[in-house]
Task: inverse folding
């Protein structure tokens, strides 16, 4: 069968559409298949619309602290429907931006749901078209970027009903503001929704199975985050196992077990945020190697099936948009025969709650477990001039160095807009900076970034402002 | 008038070093070329040679002194008679210089460099300053290299724009091949020279005047050949094994094959049969079908035979993949196709990169025997000489046979002498009794 395209990308999320653009830049004739909306979960139901909600929540929360700045407003209030509308509008704006990008790069967008069948030189892509009918596409290469969806646990009733038991998707566009919530899971998604709904005044309880919240973060950050969220009125149940989620007449009841004791939490709504499930069903039909639902890939995203690449959430954790984009670029370049420069960048992680949490590289505990002779430094925003002036003194910056080589191997932050600061350390680790570089770099004054300098100095006993 | 001897710079980046040892004492007479001292940096130990004749008048820096700055005064020579000037200049450009400028110091010559720096002033520093460019390396790579006593210049960078990154230093540490250990004492000028970046002396500096030759620019292929073969010859511990093969039966078989299959367009060459026999022998002695890597010895699954093809401006080695699985007719057809496309420079990279064993044949030029340079990362390369009638002794009688000499160059890190010999022992009967190739 003759090939119609050089590359067909399945899924137009941040992995897929970026892969398609890169493929097109490299002169490959490219098509992209999307069953729902360009931009995928990220733009439509994830990263972007949640940031819109969180901004509304953050401003509203600030209004109640205006006195400290010498300001006051007459009775702050909000219109929940308008907050949701704004978030949906932001998503729509971004999604139509992707449509423009596809057109600009002459990428054919095929609307429909794709299925893979055996084919040569790459699997055949059979698309059930949105407009009806089907279309079979044979390309030289296929990039599977099918993404993931919320993980639901049917055995305990943790399954969305679109009404009282929510996943992220329901939580992004509810009809009414819930009075109370139980959030199952304290990862980035759970914490962001907890933070948003709490900012608007909901009673929020977060249930976490392990013994600390935000378990992927450094233990000190987990602790500070719990304190900061509790200060805002969020309740945490840690080390708590959810045994049953049930709908009741006026809401939900969530049965949990803490330290062997059973308990029941009640609320108007429950949000299930216990991770994701990859959209990879039916792929064994073409003999694809899988590992716990994720496609097994090589370092360029190649799979065991000739001509098939997999990237992003479908290819395994971390389930982050920027990781998917990075892999998409790499796969497209590999297909085009372009030699991708060996840039070894760590993948940062950000949570946009109030306060924000951002991290990259190893936690102190992970580094110690790996047998590294760790040198760690910390610096609190409480004594940073810019933070004090801005009234944003919560949180700190922590650095983790390999004491033997002086290499920065991890950085962890909690505080105001730290998600914008983490990039400095991502760059540093990528360029293989040592403590001497980080000590010698000039930081603009006054900025909260100066805390990054101090945290690097502190690891070597040279902190200046404590 | 006495001559100052200054601390030389052993590399462009050297700022200071340790004066490890004096080979002379006050009152000694030295002549140009005598080793007078040893200098250590974090990278290497080097010998310092005198450029002028004279009697050591004073030693101003004791042996074992650390952190001696480049161009610091370390000793004085009393010139014999009135010979204070810089080196007796042979070359025309140098002749002007001594007159034009005062000569405060006698340049010292770093062992291993063949020409004396002709400029006055802090000559030693300048003579080496032109060698080597800035090395792009990450801060961590610099630190790791310095801790492991590795020279960044000797490490191939895999980062963006060839930047040396942590992984490269770690690979060099594991491999050891690119490590440039400082010799504890430098026994010979040659060995110390190897430790320093190779100085690029112009032909003029080496006595070949400008205008007496035409310069053909280096193209990509020439640069690749120069780099790959220099690296291989220098870094791979190689040795040759030579064997004579009688090929009368092979020539007869070839004639028969070609006459019987002429109507099918089959025309098998001796080289095609050698490729097939090499592949079969490699399957029988898989240790010879191997590559050295820092992580371990890669035992290749297939005999991918790279065939050296001379082309305009150089040579290239297209590959017959999995030759052990292919018949002679197919090998012959593939080699013809690859060679034709090699000559028109239409080979794809995957067609000439990544073989597991090479065959180079100069028999058609009448070369009797030669030893090729290992085609890295392959473990061995076979050099095939001309088939010619030679007198051989059979059962105590002189006889005439067509004999061909082949030489196997082996990478001793993977193919030891006994392995190479075992391979040749497997190869020999396949050539001498080509019928056995069928089974």
Result:
């Amino acid at each position: 069968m003759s090939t119609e395209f050089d590359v067909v990308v399945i899924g137009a999320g941040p992995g897929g559409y970026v892969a398609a653009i890169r493929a097109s830049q490299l002169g490959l004739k490219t098509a992209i298949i999307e069953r729902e909306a360009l931009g995928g979960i990220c733009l439509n139901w994830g990263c972007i619309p949640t940031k819109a909600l969180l901004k509304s929540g953050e401003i509203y929360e600030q209004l109640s602290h205006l006195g400290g700045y010498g300001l006051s407003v007459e009775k702050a209030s909000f219109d929940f429907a308008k907050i949701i509308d704004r978030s949906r509008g932001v998503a729509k704006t971004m999604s139509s931006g992707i449509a423009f990008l596809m057109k600009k790069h002459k990428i054919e967008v095929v609307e429909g749901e794709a299925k893979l069948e055996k084919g040569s030189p790459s699997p055949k892509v059979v698309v059930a078209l949105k407009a009806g009918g089907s279309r079979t596409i044979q390309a030289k290469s296929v990039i599977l970027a099918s993404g993931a969806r919320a993980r639901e646990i049917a055995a305990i009733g943790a399954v969305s009903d679109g009404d009282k038991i929510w996943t992220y998707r329901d939580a992004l566009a509810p009809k009414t503001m819930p009075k109370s919530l139980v959030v199952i899971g304290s990862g980035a998604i759970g914490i962001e929704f907890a933070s948003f709904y709490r900012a608007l005044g909901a009673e929020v309880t977060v249930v976490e199975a392990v013994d600390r919240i935000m378990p992927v973060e450094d233990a000190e950050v987990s602790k500070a985050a719990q304190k900061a969220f509790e200060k805002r009125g969020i309740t945490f149940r840690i080390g708590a196992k959810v045994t049953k989620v049930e709908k009741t007449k006026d809401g939900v009841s969530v049965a949990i077990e803490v330290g062997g004791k059973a308990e029941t939490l009640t609320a108007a709504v429950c949000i299930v945020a216990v991770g994701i499930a990859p959209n990879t069903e039916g792929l064994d039909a073409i003999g694809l190697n899988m590992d716990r639902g994720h496609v097994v890939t090589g370092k360029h995203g190649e799979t065991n099936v000739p001509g098939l690449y997999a990237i992003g959430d479908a290819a395994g954790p971390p389930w982050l948009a920027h990781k998917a984009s990075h892999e998409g670029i790499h796969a497209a370049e590999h297909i085009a025969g372009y030699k991708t420069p060996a840039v070894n960048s760590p993948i940062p992680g950000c949570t946009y709650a109030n306060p924000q949490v951002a991290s990259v590289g190893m936690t102190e505990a992970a580094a110690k477990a790996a047998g590294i002779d760790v040198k760690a430094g910390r610096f609190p925003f409480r004594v940073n001039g810019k933070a004090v002036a801005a009234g944003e003194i919560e949180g700190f910056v922590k650095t983790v160095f390999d004491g033997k080589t002086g290499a920065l191997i991890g950085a962890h932050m909690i505080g105001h807009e730290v998600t914008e600061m983490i990039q400095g350390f991502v760059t540093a680790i990528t360029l293989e900076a040592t403590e001497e570089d980080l000590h010698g770099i000039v930081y603009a004054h006054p900025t909260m970034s100066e805390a990054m300098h101090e945290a690097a100095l502190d690891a070597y006993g040279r902190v200046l402002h404590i | 008038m006495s001559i100052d001897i200054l601390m030389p710079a052993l590399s462009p980046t050297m700022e200071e070093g340790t004066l490890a040892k004096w080979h002379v004492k006050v009152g000694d007479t030295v002549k140009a070329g005598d080793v007078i001292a040893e200098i250590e940096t974090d990278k290497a130990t080097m010998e310092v040679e005198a450029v002028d004749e004279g009697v050591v008048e004073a030693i101003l820096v004791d042996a074992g002194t650390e952190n001696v700055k480049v161009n610091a005064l370390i000793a004085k020579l009393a010139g014999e008679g009135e010979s204070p000037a810089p080196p007796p200049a042979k070359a025309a450009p140098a002749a002007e210089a001594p007159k034009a400028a005062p000569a405060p110091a006698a340049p010292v010559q770093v062992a291993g460099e063949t020409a004396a720096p002709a400029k006055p002033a802090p000559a030693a520093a300048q003579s080496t300053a032109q060698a080597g460019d800035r090395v792009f390396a990450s801060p961590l790579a610099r630190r790791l290299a310095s801790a492991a006593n590795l020279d960044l210049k000797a490490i191939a960078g895999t980062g963006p724009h060839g930047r040396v990154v942590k992984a490269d230093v770690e690979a060099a540490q594991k491999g050891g091949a690119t490590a440039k250990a400082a010799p504890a004492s430098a026994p010979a000028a040659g060995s110390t020279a190897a430790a320093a970046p190779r100085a690029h002396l112009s032909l003029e500096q080496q006595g070949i005047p400008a205008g007496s030759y035409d310069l053909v620019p280096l193209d990509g292929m020439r640069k690749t050949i120069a780099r790959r073969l220099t690296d291989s010859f220098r870094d791979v511990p190689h040795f040759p094994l030579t064997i004579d093969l009688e090929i009368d039966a092979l020539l007869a078989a070839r004639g028969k094959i070609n006459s019987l299959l002429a109507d099918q367009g089959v025309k098998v060459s001796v080289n095609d049969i050698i490729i097939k026999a090499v592949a079969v022998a490699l399957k029988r002695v898989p240790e010879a079908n191997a590559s050295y890597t820092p992580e371990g010895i890669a035992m290749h699954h297939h005999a991918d035979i790279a065939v050296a093809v001379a082309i305009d401006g150089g040579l290239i080695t297209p590959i017959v993949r999995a030759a052990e699985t292919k018949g002679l007719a197919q090998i012959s057809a593939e080699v013809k196709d690859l060679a034709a496309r090699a000559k028109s420079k239409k080979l794809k990279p995957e067609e000439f990169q990544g073989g597991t064993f090479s065959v180079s044949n100069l028999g058609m030029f009448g070369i009797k025997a030669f030893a090729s340079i290992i085609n890295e990362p392959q473990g061995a390369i076979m050099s095939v000489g001309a088939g010619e009638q030679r007198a051989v002794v059979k059962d105590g009688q002189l006889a005439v046979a067509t004999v061909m000499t082949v030489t196997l160059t082996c990478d001793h890190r993977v193919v030891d002498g006994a392995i190479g010999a075992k391979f040749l022992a497997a190869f020999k009967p396949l050539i001498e009794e080509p019928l056995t190739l069928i089974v």
